[in-house]
Automatic annotation (TrEMBL):
One term under GO cellular component: external side of plasma membrane
Location of region: Disordered: 272-309
InterPro entries associated with the record: BTN3A2-like_Ig-C (IPR053896), Ig-like_dom (IPR007110), Ig-like_dom_sf (IPR036179), Ig-like_fold (IPR013783), Ig/MHC_CS (IPR003006), Ig_C1-set (IPR003597), Ig_sub (IPR003599), Ig_V-set (IPR013106)
Annotated SUPFAM superfamilies: Immunoglobulin (SSF48726)
GO terms under biological process: regulation of cytokine production; regulation of leukocyte cell-cell adhesion; regulation of T cell activation; T cell activation; T cell receptor signaling pathway
Organism: Leptobrachium leishanense
Family under the similarity heading: Belongs to the SKINT family.
Signal peptide: 1-16
Superkingdom field: Eukaryota
Protein's name in the database: CD276 molecule
Length: 309
């Protein structure tokens, strides 16, 4: 225990100012702000007037300076004018992190923070710029009248990202396609990449092809898939239209038939109804006639009786 204390004591006495920076590169999204971290444990009784700090890019472009208790920006590199900010309230605790506004591709590189309070020290922070790519878009050539056994060239495009990506083609079983693949990554005038990859495949009855784009910095994957069905797509358009036509005709026929049937049914119903009505009338007539003779006969009987009487 005492050995450890002694070691720590010796260590702190012997070392110059110990600067802390991240080991991994700092990722700056293109156009956004980024903080480049750098801090030290200030000596006791430390005053800002004793502090000199400098941020430089690749050791010669001056990014930001702070000496004698104030910012010194006369020698600031034009690329960084109005784009850098220290955190003033953090300085007294040894936090000399720098905020960089509106990250540009040209900012990518190694930033060095220098500090002098009694002793000097410096440390490097690597800034890695990244820009996400557009969602990949797939094209087939040829895209029509495909039959199993046909050779199809598939093209995958993705745009406006940074830096270069890793692009992989996969079939429906998740196997990487490595043969007959050509990938080109070309930077535009702004330095952003346009990635174009083609793969030539021999079509089977049906398969799904996927273009996967791995962003090495953002560590994300974007993808697009296409399912190519040889038989389905080889179905000639004329046959399709003929089939559609036939279907429409059939449907028309069915509708016509249904109408005719309905009409016929209605007619039969009406006829039946009409017949039923006649029968009723006839029945009533019969009833009447059947009653009348009864009445008549009774009347006749009466009459007869009266006559007889
Ligand atoms: C750092 O400064 C201390 C005094 O504050 C001194 O004892 C030490 O030797 C210095 N270290 C270096 C590496 O200059
Ligand atoms: C920096 O900002 C000031 C004030 O907003 C402005 O006047 C100046 O033109 C800016 N300089 C640059 C190089 O953008
Ligand atoms: C330094 O200051 C920045 C801005 O306030 C903060 O994000 C960061 O965590 C600070 N670093 C340390 C080590 O305190
Ligand atoms: C496909 O390729 C990618 C990138 O080269 C690799 O990371 C992955 O493991 C491969 N997958 C298979 C199934 O081989
Ligand atoms: C790659 O292309 C060659 C020549 O066109 C062809 O013989 C071969 O079958 C193709 N490979 C695959 C996996 O399609």
């Amino acid at each position: 225990m005492s050995a450890l204390c002694l070691f720590l004591l010796l260590h702190s006495v012997a070392s110059a100012i110990e600067l802390h920076v991240p080991d991994a590169p700092v990722i700056g999204l293109l156009g956004e702000d980024v903080v480049l971290p750098c801090w030290f444990s200030p000596p006791t009784g430390f005053s800002l007037r004793e502090l000199s700090l400098f941020w430089k890019l690749t050791t010669f472009q001056q990014v930001h300076a702070f000496t004698l208790g104030q910012e010194q920006l006369e020698n600031q590199d034009p690329d960084f004018i109005n784009r850098t900010l220290l955190f003033p309230e953090e300085l007294s605790v040894g936090n000399m992190s720098l905020r960089l506004r509106g990250v540009r591709l040209s900012d990518e590189g190694i930033f060095t923070c220098f500090v002098n309070v009694e002793n000097s020290s410096s440390a490097a922070v690597r800034l890695q710029v990244a820009a996400p790519f557009s969602k990949p878009v797939l094209h087939l050539e040829p895209s029509e009248s495909l039959k199993p056994g046909d050779k199809v060239t598939m093209t995958c495009h993705t745009y406006h990202g940074y830096p270069e990506v890793e692009l992989v083609w996969q079939d429906g079983r998740g196997h990487n396609l490595t043969e007959n693949v050509t990938t080109a990554q070309v930077a535009n005038e702004k330095g952003l990449f346009h990635v174009q990859s083609t793969v030539v495949v021999t079509l089977e009855t049906s398969d799904t092809y996927t273009c996967l784009v791995y962003h090495p910095v953002l560590r994300d994957v974007t993808q697009s898939s296409v399912t190519v069905t040889g038989q389905h797509l080889s179905f000639p358009p004329i046959a399709l239209w003929v089939t559609v036509g036939l279907c429409v005709c059939l449907l028309g026929l069915l509708v016509a038939l249904a109408c005719v049937c309905r009409k016929q049914l209605k007619q039969t119903c009406e006829e039946e109804q009409a017949e039923a009505g006649d029968e009723e009338v006839e029945e009533n007539g019969e009833l009447k006639t059947a009653m009348q003779p009864l009445k008549a006969s009774s009347a006749g009987d009466d009459d007869n009786t009266s006559f007889i009487e």
